[in-house]
Each structure stands twice: as C-alpha cells, then as structure tokens.
Design brief:
Elements (H helix, E strand, L loop, with lengths): L4 H33 L2 H22 L2 H4 L2 H24 L5 H24 L1 H4 L5 H29 L2 H20 L18 H17 L2 H32 L4 H29 L2 H19 L7 H27 L5 H13 L2 H14 L2 H17 L7 H5 L3 H5 L1 H5 L6
Length: 425
C-alpha cells in the first residue's frame, strides 16, 4: 500500500470509520423504529425522506468538488453529519422517540452525505497517481469492507447489550474522527474558482456546472444506460437491505439484533473477500464486463434464495454472496469511470450519475414497506432477487459496454473524450 501514499490511507481510514459508525447507526435506527412501532411501513416512511433529499441534492452539490478543493468539501461534509447525528443520539439518550424529529435530523444529515458522496470517489485521482487508480479503488473498498464488517458486528452487539443511544453516539463520533483525519492530509485538488477570481459569478458558474454534468451524462449513452440499470438494481437492493431484512429478522425469524448484525457482517465479509483477493483473481481470468454481469446475476440469485430458506446457518452464506457480487461490479465500474471522466468534470458527472442511480431508492424503500402489507416476507424477497437477475442480462445491450470495461488503464483514460467528444464541449 506504500505506493498509494499517506494521504490516501488517511482519507480512506477516516471514511471507513464513518462507515463503521454508519452501520452501527443503521442497525440501531432500524431496531429502534421496529421495536417502538412494530411496523415495516413506518420504518420505510421514516427512512425515505432523507434518502429522497440526498438524491435531489447530490447533483446540486456535485460542482462543489470541481470548484473548491475536494479535501475541504469532505471535511465540511463530515462535520455537518457529526452535528446532526449527535443531536439524534441525544434524543435517544433522553428516551425521546419522535418520528418527526428523527426524519428532520436524518434529512439534515443527508445534506452532508450529498456533498460527500461524489467527492469520495473523485478525490482518489488527487491523492494517488493515475496508474494506481485500480488498486486505490480496490484498497478503498477493502478498507470500507473492514469498517462495514466491524460496524455490523459491533452494531449488533451494542444494540443488544449496551443500547441504542450508545450506538447512535458512536456513529456521531465516527464522523468527527473522519473530519479530523481528512483535515490533516497534505494533498488537495485545485480550486477552479481561483482561475477567474469572479466570485460574484460563483452561483451562475455553479448551476452552469450542474447543467454541464447533466448534458455530459445525457450525451454518453454508456454512462446513461448503465446508470439506468444500476438505478433499477438499487430499487430492489436497498429496499431489501434497509427495510425487508431487519423486519424479516425481527418479525419473520424472531431473532435478536445481534443476528441482524451478523447478517450485515456477512455482507461486509463478501465485500472484504472480493476487494482483498477475489476480484483480482476474477479479473485475471475473466473479462471485466463478464465479471460485472455475472456478479450482478449472482447477488440477485443470493437474495432470491434468502426467500426460499429459513435456515439460520445458510442465510449468512447467502449474504456473503450478495457482498461478493455487488463488489465485483462496483469496483470495476467505478475504476473505469473515474479514469474515463476528464478531471474538471469528474465530480459533477459523478454527482449526476449518483442522482440517476439513486433516484429509485426512496421508491424502493416505500415499495418494500407497502409490499409487506400484502405479501409475506418470502415472496417479497424472491421478487427483489429475481428482479436483479433479470436486469443483469440487460448489460449485454449497453452500447460499447464490453469495449469500455475491457480497456486497459491507458486506453480508458481518454475513452469518453475519444468516443463522446460532444459531451465535453
């Protein structure tokens, strides 16, 4: 990891810690709502607004990383999330369960997430040489998976044996630590606003950059069509992980919070195994486009199988499969895209894609809550898994997808400019 440098490791470790806290918070919040209300529908209603706001704001926040130094954007985002996560923890400590306040604080916290999301990947090329981007992405995924696994295990244990307030407090502190670690990195991206010194025109420049990102994505069919497929996958995947799985564990299986944490940790273990070892082996033997398609089909199949079994020992294995398949496509696709996008467009185009692929997440969460009113857990889970399996086959029809995914580092660096020059005019 020496070639990736001190700054990259500081940033990724900080984000992994915030992910650790985030997984603890996810388990605590889901369990808190389910325990208080016994209603998956209300759980979906509480989670959906913050997801919707995050999705709407992500493309609007995107130009920040192309105008201001990305390091400072990340620090500001983490501090913002710390403040509102800390207030939520205080409510829990005081024993105040108020769905309206939970929604408000979650929505406010999502503003910081919207600022951080596109910066988290676009900053990589600032911190490491381009030839190490693939390794940086895999290492980042590896570090995150460790945080994910530890967060899931720790979250389940803390909720079961210490309590929800302490778990939420840990989440808040993780954002503060992430902000401190990011603040001490030396590298920082160029501030493009300094080129013209026209600060009065900053707002106009900001929204012009948003428009440029939208137009660029629209004029790159590869970006647009693959994004639509990921959007559909997210509809099924997020609703399964966020609403159906915790409800299924608590109400369908009658298991405590630690078992939900174990399933989350199994999912993280799949991410870890793929990032640390399996993905490299896959890519050595199989073209990346096939790795992504098979990976998507595999994790869809694993979700579907969750709906066909109640064997407690088998469910963690299936969640490992979900993590393996998801990471196979995420790391490969993100690496190729980050290299293919010109630096001055990197954050805004990433933000626009984030908006596209996440727009159905609140709808999926809402659908999960409603579907459980009319369908049993097993049927709903099968529908989610089978939907992802069908979508995986549609990647064969995305224009230039195979050529793009099979391009080496040097070829992919200019892929978008060479094949879609009109997108950057």
């Amino acid at each position: 990891m020496k070639e990736l440098g001190r700054d990259f490791l500081l940033f990724r470790i900080g984000q992994a810690l915030s992910m650790l806290g985030g997984r603890c918070s996810h388990i605590a919040l889901a369990w808190w709502v389910i325990e208080e209300t016994k209603s998956p529908t209300l759980l979906a209603a509480i989670l959906a607004p913050s997801m919707f706001v995050n999705i709407i704001l992500t493309p609007l926040m995107g130009p920040a990383g192309d105008i201001f130094p990305r390091k400072y954007c990340a620090v500001l985002a983490d501090i913002w999330c710390f403040v509102f996560s800390f207030v939520l923890a205080l409510l829990a400590l005081l024993g105040i369960f108020d769905p309206i306040w939970i929604v408000i604080l979650s929505v406010l916290s999502s503003i910081g997430t919207a600022l951080l999301s596109p910066v988290m990947y676009s900053i990589v090329t600032t911190l490491v040489p381009k030839e190490h981007t693939q390794k940086a992405m895999a290492t980042g995924s590896l570090i995150n998976s460790i945080g994910f696994i530890l967060g899931a295990i720790l979250g389940g244990i803390l909720v079961a044996f210490v309590g929800i307030p302490v778990t939420l407090l840990l989440n808040a502190l993780s954002f503060l630590i992430a902000a401190i670690l990011t603040s001490i990195i030396r590298q920082t991206s160029q501030s493009f606003v300094n080129k013209d010194k026209e600060y009065k025109k900053l707002v106009a420049k900001w929204f012009r950059n948003v428009g440029d990102g939208v137009r660029a994505m629209w004029k790159i069919p590869l970006e647009m069509y693959s994004g639509v497929l990921v959007m559909i996958v997210n509809f099924f995947l997020t609703s399964f992980l966020v609403v159906i799985l915790p409800s299924y564990v608590e109400r369908g299986l009658g298991m405590p919070a630690w078992y939900f944490g174990a399933l989350q940790a199994s999912f993280g273990l799949g991410i870890f195994l793929t990032s640390s070892w399996l993905l490299e082996k896959f890519n050595e033997r199989i073209p990346k486009d096939i790795v992504c398609i098979v990976g998507t089909f595999t994790f869809g199949m694993c979700i579907a199988l969750v709906g066909w079994t109640q064997e407690l020992k088998l469910l963690p294995v299936l969640l490992i499969g979900v993590g393996i398949g998801l990471t196979a496509i995420n790391v490969n696709m993100r690496t190729q895209r980050i290299l293919a996008i010109p630096d001055e467009y990197r954050t805004r185009l990433s933000a626009c894609r984030q908006f596209l692929i996440q727009i159905t997440i609140p709808l999926g969460v809402a659908y999960a809550g409603v579907s459980l009113k009319y369908l049993d857990f097993s049927t709903s889970i099968r529908i989610h898994g089978l939907g992802i399996m069908v979508v995986s086959l549609l990647y064969f029809f995305v224009p230039k997808y195979s050529k793009f995914m099979r391009s080496n580092t040097k070829q992919v660096e200019n892929f978008y400019v060479e094949h879609y020059p009109q997108a950057f005019r």
